[in-house]
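Example record for the data management plan.
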Amino acid sequence: MTILKINTFAGMIPRLPPERLPDGAAEYAENCDFAHGELRSLKGPAPRLATTGAVRSLFTDDGLRFYAWPDYTRACLAPTIDDTFGRVYFNTAGQGVRVAQTLGMSSALSNPRPPVSSWKAGVKRPAAPEAIVIPVMITQVSVEVVQDGVVVKAVDISSTRGDIVDWVSFTVTVPADLMDGLSTEPDPAAADAQGWVSGADELSATWQENGFEMGMYDVSNVFAGGTWQINQYGQVKLGGATVDAHTVTYKGTRYTPASLLYAELLSGEAAVTGSALDLQFRVLMLDAGGAVVSEAIYPHAANGEIENSYILSVPKSVAGEVQTVAYVAVAVNDWGEESAPSDPILVERRDSGLESAVLRVTHTPDPDQRPISGLLFYRTYAGFTNASYFLVSETPAVGTGGVYPLTDTTTEPATTITLAPSQAYWDEPPIGAKWMAYAGNGILCAADGRDLVLTEPYRCHAWAYRMTFPHAITGIIEADGGVLVTTTARPYFVYGAHPEQMTQQAINAEQAGITGRAMARVEGAAIYVSNDGLVRASGGQASIAESQHLFTRNDWRSAYKAHFPTMALSAWDGRLFGILDGQTDGHFVLSFGEASSYAHLDAGRALTGIAVSATTDETYLLYADGFAEFGGGEDMALVWHSKQHEFPRPTAFAAGILRCRGSFTVEVHRDGALIHTETVTHTQDAERAFRLPPAGRGSHWQIRIAGTGTFSRIELGASFEELKHG
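Corresponding structural encoding:
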């Protein structure tokens, strides 16, 4: 009993002759889906969305709005968290990195096209500042008497000091009238009929007994009535006792002999408010705007005595140590993106705060970049590491006529914001950047000759790092938490959390990459086109074995080498699509793994490329006049030819059974000749029995299937009875 039975379907293996294919493999397959073991039609593209120009690259963030480019372009959303500007970075090979906004995208029905408005990524670095140092002009000096934190008297002495505006050192003498009007008893004291003057404030007195100095203090709190009396002889009456006082101390002033206090009480000169402990002088120096540029506080008197004339030293206007301060300027655009800092300028200025540095930068922004909002200035400060540049002012300096000024009077940091250590290397992206890719952790990268250029994390305008390879880079694609970099010699895996820590690891594959366009990610692996076949890289390892299972080197090159420069790879539903730009046929669909399969793709019209939206996980076929979502249309017409089933003895088949759902035409070929055609249409999965004509025996039998739907199995036998028991 001889039966030809096919109930498992697979794709082509071009390296094997038709008669040596495994059971279920195809001599030819087109538009076939083998994912379920059955023969199914691939779902075709949805209706075409028209564009006025060719589409070779497509970007969408929501499947509703698009950018479309006529040249191969890579694009991605800014990886910055909560980006309020909707930045879209894109790189057309050899044309640098540019940035647009999502608000400029077109709906699918509104002729998607390249961004109408886009800008070169990055911010142009300004030139080094120019600087001059000028002193702050003091226009007013005042002296205040402060008691318990309250100003009780103030005198402006500016008009009496002509040398103030000359910016020299000078000494302030407290005017005598500064003490006037500070008495708690504005009127002179009066003596009673016996010549005694009474008081209730604190008084201390000393007297002599037997040659020894005696004393009594705080008499107002000790004696009944809390009062004391003094006469013109210096006698002090303490309650009921009278002593011949040698000295008395009243409100911080010592009187010797004690009779001096009596005289000053009668004249009113001893009635001064305050004491040496709570009375202070404060000297203020003000500039033309009334701002205090210096403040000095002095105790009233060290010896406890009141002086009407008190000498106060005011600091010299340019006092302080001379320090060398470094300034840099940074351009900032209206998105808050900063440039690399300018070269530093060194300025010598004193640390008194009475000198100001006037900076100016002449800067012409790049008109092809986002407009700048101004320049920020950073500087060093004494007491901090020289590597710390602190932001002088959070408000950017606005330019006039291309000149951006700043006046700095600070002596210590006004903010905690410092210049990033790597900011000195924040370059604009290379003009010839190619194959832009996302490297994880907010980092973009691109190729510049033999260099892999990377951005500062989450700052896609700042291309701060370079990694050099032994050979020119031919392509880049995200892979395994890093990127796969192909070169003209071999591939490398680049990984690391930060560009400063990233390393390059040569992969155990000697196949050079052809082009970044012919690279794709499928189920966690990166796949690229080489001259030897398709190389699959994953887990730091690379292999061409799966490709070699399908193609010999000659088979691969014969079929596709002429199309290598324009071949585009992309993933769809776990399979790899290969598109030949400008071709109607020759495209392929391939799946890797234990059941590798390969089939042709015929979309019914010329294709220019294929695109995948990482955001929506949708795949689009690209045309010379539009694009269409793949898998969103009707079943495509499949074609599948079985292997050449070879039998050791000539065999004749007379009966057949097939099972399918859909519309199919089945041809039975014997020794290369068509002997029967069976057409079937089933709206549900069902069997069809059919008879073959008595065409004789043959050694090679082949089944050819064409149609749409799902084809489950086919069996040929000498009779239906034989098929029933087979």
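Summary line stored alongside the record: The first strand starts at residue 4 and ends at 6.
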